[in-house]
Each structure stands twice: as structure tokens, then as C-alpha cells.
Amino acid sequence: MKIGITCYPTYGGSGAVATELGIQLAARGHEIHFISYAQPFRLGHFRERVFFHEVEMEDYPLFEHPPYSLALSVAIHDTASREGLDLVHVHYAIPHATSAWIAREMMATEKDLPIITTLHGTDITLVGLHPSFHRITQFSILRSQGITAVSDYLKEETVRDFAVPGDRIDVIPNFIDTDAWRPDLEPCHRGTLAPGGEKIVMHISNFRPVKRVEDVVAAFARIREKVPARLVMVGDGPDRPRAMEKGEELGVRRDILFLGKHASVNELLACADLFLLPSGGESFGLAALEAMACGAPVVATRAGGLPEVVESGRTGFLLPVGDVEGMGDAGIEILSDPALHGRLAEAGRARAVEYFSADRVVPMYEALYERVIKGCEDE
Ligand code: GMT
Questions:
Q1: Is residue 236 a contact partner of residue 260, using CB atoms and an 8 Å limit?
Q2: Measuring from atom 2 of ligand 1, which residue has the nearest CA?
């Protein structure tokens, strides 16, 4: 198949999943055309059958807010027409589902171009609920020929808040390449991250308020009272200064390393002894899955779709949002008991391989594509 993929190219789970999907589909013989304003960050080097089409934007003094959605519609239309795409798969509904629908309308006399929209998280649970976006988001999702959600939780939210019929949504979980995300990656950076042989506690996110990075620091401070440990914070975003202040306030700032954004976080996760994800909401929690695949037990919140990823008591522990004492205590228990740590790490890796590997999940997308294309042909 010739498949167009539109996603946010920046650091973030939806872009990471979309990029990995394109890479995996190309490896399985499909031709992939990424259409976005920049090359997706995890695409890396040249790959066979993978192409990137940059959305051209014309700047004009009148535009205080340049209309990216329209330029994207044109880029999707032109790429689909020129390359003979069989379908376009957009990740994160806003504005991608709308731009794709416009492109499909523009193509109507030429070809019936199927659109698949994958819902990822705040396009449904936060941004899409805002009155300025709700109607157009609902409209565009309903106009897609295929709709997927990354968890049962997100599907239920979409049915409830956007009145999308449940039978129109396929739940296809996020996935990872379990060969690239694994515990025994070399070289190991443990000596650099924790030169004194301390335990390594890690958090990776875009440091937005929903990630509750101050809770990461507070839970770590509790762990630090009992276990020699260092906190490695990977990523960046608006709440980084608050996390730093919290570290000062709790007297653990010197035990925290802020590494900023990294494209190859698998190399860092492979050194983690514990992963903290105390989010206020999470449709899936890709970072938790990445940690599990790398053999790091996860302490997270029982929020949104996280219980579909982390099995509390088996691959980590889930606690109520804001329960930093509970998360800290769970961390202490894991880091102080090598047998427990080993059991959780092994079960997490096994769960990642069994349920969330590319080999299991990518064929679900292929089956959906075939079904949707056939549906369009039969109409
Ligand atoms: O929804 C967002 O705000 C951003 C999005 C992203 O691009 O990282 O995150 C969502 O999609 C990820 C990939 O499917 C999920 O793993 C995250 O849980 C989800 N974030 C939230 O629901 C807050």
C-alpha cells in the first residue's frame, strides 16, 4: 500500500508512535509518505520506501496566526494525488483530521481517498473539549473512514464526549520495537548518570502540567531519604522550572539531573532502576511501556489508560493521582528488594513483548487499512 502519515513531528508520544508505525510499515513493504511541517524527530537516517513531504507555509504580514491547517490540506492533497496514495492516516485529531477531510473533499472528482484518524489523548480529553474546537473535532472524526483510539479508556471518552458510535472506533494500542527498547543495551550510561553507584530513578515527558513533574520530585525526595538514588529527568517543557524549584525546596536538587530532550531515550531507559509517571491523566502512557520494555518497573498513577499498560503489583505499582507518599514508598520497596525488582522488571518486559510489540500491533493497522480501502471501493 501507499500510505500518507500526518503527525506532530516534535517530541511527544503521538509523533513517536506515528513515526514508528511508518518505519515498521515500510519494513513490511509498504511505501510511506510523511506529511508534516518538519521531519518527525524519530525518523533519523534514510530508510527505504520512506519519504518526507514538508508542508510549505507562506508567511504574510496579515497573518498573526498563519493558517497551517489549510497548508496541510494542500500538502496532503498534492501528495496523495502525485504519489497515488491509497489512504492517509492522521495522528492526533486537531487539526489533522480536519485538514485530511478537506484534502479528501478536494480530491473527490479524482479518487475516493480514505482517511484514518488515530485519537491519542488530549485531542479528546482536553483540547478537543474546548468550545472553540469541540464541534469541528467531532465533525472531522465522524468524517474519517477509520477511527482508532490507543486505549479502551480513550474510546469510552470519545463515545461519551463526542457522541461517536462505539462500533466505529477500533482500539489499537500503542506499540514499540522491542528489539530497540530492551534492558541490555550497550553502551550503558550508568556510570555517568550515577557515578557513586546510586539507584537510577527516571522520568521522561514534555513537562506539561498534566505530567505533574513536581510530584516526580516529591516522590523521589521520599525515596532519597531511604535509598541512595539519583533522579534523571529527560525531556523539557513549561514545568521544568517548577520541578527545579521543588528540588531546591525539598533539598534534593543536587541529586537530580535534567538532561533535556533526547531522540534516543531507549539508551537512557536501559539504565533506569525505576520509572516514575505520576500524571494527572494519560490516555495510554507510552513512556511507561517504553520503560517496561527496557526492564524498568513503573510507579505511576491509576489514571486514564495507564491500568491498561501497567499491571499494578505485577509490572509496577499504580497509586491515586497526587499520592506522592504512596509513590515514594512503592519506589523504596522496589529499590530495596532485589527479588521484587527482578520480578517486576521481568514481567514488564514480558508484557511489552507479548501485548505491545510491533509484530503484534502493526498487523492490526494493516487489517484496518485493508478493511477501510475495501469499504470505500464497495460504496
Ligand atoms: O495528547 C497529548 O497531549 C499529546 C500526546 C503526545 O503526542 O504525546 O500524548 C498522548 O498520546 C500518547 C501516544 O498515544 C499517549 O501515550 C499519551 O498517554 C497521551 N497523553 C495524554 O493522554 C496526556
A1: yes
A2: 122
- From the CA of 288, how far away is ligand 1's center (Å)? 12
- For residue 65 the three cell numbers come to 496566526
Structure confidence by residue, pLDDT tens digits, 50-108: 999 999 998 888 988 899 999 999 999 999 999 999 999 999 999 999 999 999 999 99
Helices (H), the chain: 13-27, 68-83, 93-107, 122-125, 134-143, 152-162, 190-193, 213-226, 240-249, 265-269, 286-293, 306-309, 324-336, 338-355, 358-378
Euclidean distance between CA atoms 372 and 378, whole angstroms:
10
Q: Which CATH superfamily is domain 190-355 in?
A: Glycogen Phosphorylase B; (3.40.50.2000)
* Confidence band of 199 (pLDDT split at 50, 70, 90): very high
pLDDT of 264 strictly over 90: no
Domain segments of the chain: what residues?
2-175+358-378, 190-355
Q: Whose CA is nearest to atom 12 of ligand 1?
A: 13
How far the first Cα of the chain sits from its last, in Å, is 20
Query: Are the CB atoms for 31 and 1 separated by under 8 Å?
Result: yes
For residue 14, how far is its CA from the centre of ligand 1 (angstroms)? 6
Task: Tell me the whole-structure pTM to 2 decimals.
Answer: 0.95
Distance 225 CA to ligand 1 centre (A): 32
Integer Rg of the chain from CA:
21
Same topology for domains 2-175+358-378 and 190-355, yes or no? yes
- Domain topology for 2-175+358-378: Rossmann fold (3.40.50)
